[in-house]
Amino acid sequence: MGRAGSGRPTIADVAARAGVSVGAVSAAVNGKGRLSEATRLRVLAAAAELGWAPSAAAVALRGARVGALGLVLRRDPDLLSSDPHFAQLVTGVESALAPLGWGLLLHLVDDGGEERAYRALAAGRRVDGVVLTESRVRDPRFALLRELGLPAALVGTPWRPDPVPTVRARDQHRGITRAVEHLVGLGHRRFGHVSGPEDRVHTRRRRAALRRALGAHGLVPVCVRASGFDPGAAAVAARELLTSAERPTAVLFANDSMAAAGLVTARRLGIDVPGELSVVGHDDLPLCELLHPALTTVRQDLVGLGRAAAVTLLAGLGVVDGAGLEEVRPPELVVRESTGPAPR
Amino acid sequence: MGRAGSGRPTIADVAARAGVSVGAVSAAVNGKGRLSEATRLRVLAAAAELGWAPSAAAVALRGARVGALGLVLRRDPDLLSSDPHFAQLVTGVESALAPLGWGLLLHLVDDGGEERAYRALAAGRRVDGVVLTESRVRDPRFALLRELGLPAALVGTPWRPDPVPTVRARDQHRGITRAVEHLVGLGHRRFGHVSGPEDRVHTRRRRAALRRALGAHGLVPVCVRASGFDPGAAAVAARELLTSAERPTAVLFANDSMAAAGLVTARRLGIDVPGELSVVGHDDLPLCELLHPALTTVRQDLVGLGRAAAVTLLAGLGVVDGAGLEEVRPPELVVRESTGPAPR
């Protein structure tokens, strides 16, 4: 590996050794340009002698793969660590990339920085494609990525039909339906829901799924609150629900850490879970088993979704054979200790 | 931005328009090569007409910054999502990178893939430097990175003095000392410790810090178990401690999710926390406040550590002024509900 002493060889070293310009080395390696075969061979010989190999940068210049996917997350960096999805999704993406030696280029941006980040990724050819998450209502990313010619795959449901490939579980609202059946079977009739933010596609779709599932039993939710994904906001929403005139006996939360905040809120209000209140989370993060009572939740295959998004992109790029893409597991209800018979 | 229709312009388009080779365009943009000034200007004019700008790849070729740091994590992708440090550390790194428009290139590798990943990052010039975490006993990364000429900054303490810049809190074992003082003040005399894996530098250093802190009160730990960082392994270690002949009345865990698993284990064994057992975590993840009882823990500024590592690297690269590097907050004890008077 390299020459002793002064670090790795550069294209300039190769050019000097071969007695040509840097541009000629680039041309020789790329097999383009207008070099004589003799010059081309002299350059390649110099490169071999010095142990120089064209870098990913050079490879990118001639249109091959960079070996990285991008993930641009639009949020305050401080909120990342409380994001329940992030680590699981990255885990899934990495499980597809790691065997290929590919990496995941992560960019955190604020609202204004999102478009700039995608333009920089495309113009700089820093990634071969991007994974999109958190599908938004009137999502501007699809048009932008088409303009940039940057391949993408979306985890979730686009706000309207779009040519960007999407990955999601088959029968993706089955978990919510099962949760409602479980709770109705336990005698619950007054349901509350603490949903995610209004601008997320899944907030609206899950709320609709909940209404459909309740409607099948002749029920409607007694109270619904939209909330940010962080436990603090969820605690505020939970307190509103649990101190309202028509207090629900069962509350479904948009994710597990919001449900965990709901458990804390109930405890502070002196409301016993599951004796007086049943609580259901969403996602089934490792957290659920560590809570007391352990959290009943709708398991979502977040790792599988991240993996499927990466494999879909890689298959589209011709890097892997997409035929082997395993299906994302459909959501299922995991019953633990936070749900019980409705109070009389 | 670009021509209508067929995506962004390429270096080949510029070469064709200027009537030169691709290599000549590269040479013109890099200001190297042996082009006449006339040719150089013709190339730059063509580039401007087409809206083509040299990509990050091209910039990297001529030695400027790529605009990315690397983070190579050596672990099973499946374990990432249960890693308590990962999201916090990435949050800190991103908080330094985001304002610059820089990204973080993440690579998950197995044991054998680590060296290969670093070599690929260096050879491909994919990053400007790497953040190292999880300092290991006989860590092979320092020598490797020196050989590769890849700048690095380590979060934590190196296993032996090393020229790689390191970031850590001042007075980094103060939190453990405070935890021991708190528990001794509550009457505890029988201490247990569930540490991290043996090959981590901090496992050994924290164990030594605990022994020193106990020694100051004429005490020694009654039982110590090494454990993997995942809750399952921690639960096994906790069960061993809590069913041993000389059961401790206070147990310190290496991180918060391990301590959460300890709470679950105690509950299953019918041991009341904090009535019969005090439990202390480490890190102060958001999880702590969601547990019941809420977890007393040693707060570590993981976000600050990640940020400091990134800023140190960026300052070393001359990208930011390191003089403004704020200090990492020293560890402190956060007392919640999981610690109480020793049982009589």
UniProtKB/TrEMBL annotation, chains A, B:
It holds the Pfam family Peripla_BP_3. Its EC number is 5.1.1.1. InterPro entries: HTH_LacI (IPR000843), LacI/GalR-like_sensor (IPR046335), Lambda_DNA-bd_dom_sf (IPR010982), Peripla_BP_I (IPR028082). Residues 9-63 form the HTH lacI-type domain. Keywords: DNA-binding, Isomerase, Transcription, Transcription regulation. One of its GO terms (molecular function) is alanine racemase activity. PROSITE patterns: HTH_LACI_1, HTH_LACI_2. The keyword Transmembrane does not apply. It is an enzyme of class 5 (isomerase). This is Transcriptional regulator, LacI family. SMART domains: HTH_LACI. It comes from the Bacteria.
